[in-house]
Design a protein that fits this description.
Chain A is mainly α. The first copy, chain A, has helices at residues 19-33, 41-48, 52-64, 89-97, 119-136, 140-150; strands at residues 13-14, 68-71, 77-80. The longest helix of chain A has 18 residues, at 119-136. Chains A and B meet through strand 1, helix 1, helix 4, helix 5 and helix 6 of A and helix 1, helix 4, strand 3, helix 5 and helix 6 of B. Chain B binds a DNA duplex through residues 12, 18-20, 40-42, 51-54, 56-57, 59-60, 63, 70-78.
DNA sequence: TAATTGTGGACTATTATTGTCCATAATGAG
DNA sequence: CTCATTATGGACAATAATAGTCCACAATTA
């Protein structure tokens, strides 16, 4: 018995997690590893190897999203607004990349006038539900524990 | 066509299914609705409202991917290379957009030196498995049936 | 042989994402 | 009060990904 395995001709992979989300997670992990103090964008940028100016934009989003609090002025900086166990991956991803929803119709160029009866749509929503459920169960705390267990420098791992 | 639509603060949607996959599915549905004959790219383009030149590129990929067969010359065109029930969404998506892979490490800028022990990675692969399984269970036949049941013009629905 | 139709490559256009810059507001230290 | 510090917000630029176009050519058939 044999199988033909077809790889995409260019061997490209479709990425779900973009760089801004990646950077966000690094920043959040960094803050979680440094509780009770305020960490500047500059320090996070250097430690986590993220372009400072871009990180600032990202931190603004995280601030507006209620993940971190910011404090201006000398000795100011950022700190987590919630417990690491109360921050999950889904909300970070959705804050950075938009809300996860797979319910756009597959068929045809004219939209779907009979969505309520559509079997596929049901299938779809089910998948969406599975994905969001999975992602919402991974917390910042989980990530931090992985880092600590690994004993790696700078939160890398 | 499905899309992971995400809303974030700017009401942006994060699309998982790109336009080329969308077009691909329209083309495949069109061919499935017209069995036993060869349909030109021009006809598909017009019926399914897809730019002809771009569709040609897409049909080339579908040909190389083994989804359709092509026949040059007068009265030539495209036709399905397999039964609609034997074509599933996952393979179409991966052919057009690349292999779905969520196993990129989350933590740190230095990659993951201890991947084998990583709890998150396990979680990740599990989610990937769930997604691919779901998608592979939706066939072109399912889509065609939806279209036929809907009785919509031009395969729309 | 001529008309038709797909192929392959190179090219351009458009859009999304990432990254940068600067003026300004808030904060705290001296 | 003044200055250094740090985040904020908006605009802008660079890059990358995606979508779309063009053209010469190969295959096919009337």
């Amino acid at each position: 018995m044999w199988t033909i395995i077809v790889h995409n001709e260019d061997d490209v992979t479709m990425e779900i997690i973009r760089r801004n989300t990646d950077y966000s997670i690094r920043a959040l992990v960094h803050l979680a590893l440094n509780p009770d103090i305020e960490v500047t964008a500059g320090e996070i940028a250097e430690e986590q190897d993220v372009p400072l100016e871009y990180l600032q934009k990202i931190l603004q989003k995280l601030t507006r999203g209620g993940f971190v609090n910011a404090h201006r002025g000398a000795y100011g900086g950022f700190y987590l607004a919630r417990e690491p166990k109360d921050i999950n991956l889904l909300e970070v991803i959705e804050t950075m990349q938009g809300k996860l929803a797979m319910n756009k119709c597959f068929l045809g160029k004219d939209g779907c006038p009979r969505a309520p009866k559509c079997v596929l749509k049901y299938n779809w929503l089910q998948l969406e539900q599975t994905i969001t459920s999975h992602l919402s169960q991974i917390t910042l705390q989980d990530l931090v524990e992985q880092v600590k267990e690994g004993g790696l420098p700078k939160g890398g791992g």
